[in-house]
Amino acid sequence: MNAQTKTQYFQIESRRIEVLVDQATSPKGLALIAHPHPLFGGTNQNKVVQTLARAFLEQGYDTWRPNFRGVGASEGVYDEGRGETEDFLALLQAAKTVYPNLGTEARCLALAGFSFGSFVASMAFEKLGSLALCAEKLVLIGPAASRFPMPAVPEHSIVIHGEDDEVVALDDVMAWARPLALPVLVFPQTSHFFHGRLPLLKQRVSQCLAQGRQN
Fold first, then answer.
1. Reduced to 3 DSSP states, what percent helix, strand and coil does the chain have, rounded to the nearest 5?
2. How many other CB atoms sit within 10 Å of the CB of residue 4?
């Protein structure tokens, strides 16, 4: 993403997972960001994922962007979101050794994802209790509501979707969000990959992150 981006490797169940790491100037927390579908070109260098990382960095979060199993230098094979969620949680466990007070007011934790990554981030969010962690923020961009069984998420989650999304129809996202009383920020005339809207996406995510803690 920039000259300061570092590549780190974590061993998870004897497999190597590749993670791009960016450090904020005065970090107040960590954001773990999940990329789109591995079988359709999704990587940790996806433009929407990079945009999320920039927004989090702007708000003082270090960012970790893992490549899911089988992508880039990460070992393993695609597992329909199950194994990817396990890897995401294992990375959070590893993060607790890097940030001993992670998930507290002194060191905030945020989870985020785009498309397939929104499913993984949501599933991991649901299981944070098993790690004795809680997250301040959950950010879901283009959630894959029609393609994966998206779980219930808190009503204070940040959900953003394109009106003209050609991969996941807005109607499907609203059908998932409506029973949860979950607000969805809709970008008019915007495709799944937010072509031409990335600067605005960064601005909106940054603004939402700055609006205070998620309860």
1. 35, 25, 45
2. 9
The domain spans of the chain are: 6-209
- Report pLDDT digits (tens) over 7-61: 999 999 889 999 999 999 989 999 999 999 999 999 999 999 999 999 999 999 9
165: its two tokens = 């999304």
Q: For residues 43 and 59, is the Cβ–Cβ distance under 8 A?
A: no
Looking at residue 106, its amino acid is A
Q: Distance between CA 137 and CA 55 in Å, rounded?
A: 13
What's the CATH code, domain 6-209?
3.40.50.1820
pTM above 0.70, yes or no: yes
Q: Is 21 helix (H, G, I), strand (E, B) or coil?
A: strand
Angle at 146 between CA 143 and CA 152, to 5 degrees: 60
pLDDT tens-digit map of 87-100: 999 999 999 999 98
Contact partners, residue 169, CB within 8 Å, separation at least 6: 146
* Rg (the chain; Cα; Å): 16
**DSSP one-letter string for 182-200:** ---EEETT--TT-TTTHHH
